[in-house]
Design goal:
Helix 5 runs parallel beside helix 7, helix 9 runs antiparallel to helix 11 and helix 9 packs across helix 13. Strand 6 and strand 7 form a beta hairpin. This protein folds into three domains: about 170 residues, DNA polymerase, domain 1 (Orthogonal Bundle), CATH 1.10.150.130; about 190 residues, Intergrase catalytic core (hpI Integrase, Chain A); about 50 residues. The protein is mostly helical and about 425 residues long. It contains 16 helices and seven strands. Keywords: DNA recombination, DNA-binding. InterPro entries: DNA_brk_join_enz (IPR011010), Integrase-like_cat_sf (IPR013762), Integrase_recombinase_N (IPR010998), Phage_Integrase-like_Recomb (IPR052925). It comes from Hydnum rufescens UP504. One of its GO terms (biological process) is DNA integration. GO terms for molecular function: DNA binding.
Length: about 425
Amino acid sequence: MQSDGLFTIVPVPPSQGHPSTRRSGFHHNLFRPHVKAADRIFCWTSPAVLMARARLLEASPGLALSLAKVQSVASKAWEGSTQTTYGAGLARWAEWCDDNGIPEQDRMPIEKVHLTCFIADAAGTIGVSGFKNWLNGLRAWHHFHQMPWCGDDPYIHLLLEGAKKMTPKASVHEPRPPITLSHLYAIYEQMNFQDTYDAACWAVLCAAFWGLARLGELTVPSRAGFIQGWHVARGTVINWEDVLGVQSVALRLPWTKTACNGANLILTREEDCSCPYRAIQQHFLTNSSLPDQAHFFAFRTAAGWEPMVKRDLMDRCQQIWSAAGIRDLPSGHSFRIGGTTHLLSRGTHPQVVQKLGRWSSDAFFLYWRNTQLIIPRHVHDAGVQAHMDAEMNSYFGEVSPEVLQRWKVIQSERQKLKRGNGPSRVR
């Protein structure tokens, strides 16, 4: 809990770790207390912020408690990892201000001239994503403290476009390689499914690949990092379905990176050793009798149970891949990328993949790999379908309008099914 003498700030959820001990180029003071990077948005202020609060409390002293609650609610707007990333932007801004002698009263709200100079000085030394993270952090900082933000000015966008063209080659990262079935097969060969840890590992990996999930949504950051109600637990709602011979399981994730209210992870049975449906069943069989409050992917130990830690899981995978001679070892996010690429490559409709992966924006397209396999497949299929439609329309041109209309309705329903929208009732 941090207090600046006017409001008590209670970041929620609490960030983990300790205040950064990295040697930085900025000075701590009343406005920049020594706190964790994730808490800088909330705890760093400026003379303008303190004066605005003082005026408000002087006019309405009875609102002190309510205003503290307002900040507590606002602090929930960002995830802990996002807060940490944004905190780095605030640190860089503080360093630049110290280096250029910017007085405290001009550091927030930021003047347009100062922001343009800040961007220009960094141009050519950092990539576009770095710029965006810095500015997003500064924007969040201003919004949290209800200060005016000049970063949406057209001239700022013009500067960012120019800086984008000056991005150093060293800052341009190759796209993360996707996990493939070959990666999963290499791990499968080393798994002992009677071992509680192996069974849990395999369930996570298959669920992440076929369910297009982020590993951070299925695992925990540390052995002590499992938070009930934040990470998926054994007591979560699980639906096992068998519709027209198609088996699937859906489980409720209480939190995802883009949905604070949670989302459903849907896993369909596959005729493959990496089938997520059977992997979940095996995990439940090997790790039976765990309490509802245990981590969903927890494994039994002599002392009880432990949650599945992301870093430990990835270390195990990379050890296996290295021993198998696999180069360019993927990262945890590569499971989501690989699952997306695999489903698209085998002809799954892009809208179905987008829905399965819980994307609501065009960020979905950033996950496409092997586009030379994906795009021609769908273009070809569309061409074949168009040819078949033309042939059928020619045939039905000789029958009654009622039959032709019926055919069009059936075709419309067929397209809905391909898009994953589900059929309507056809009479």
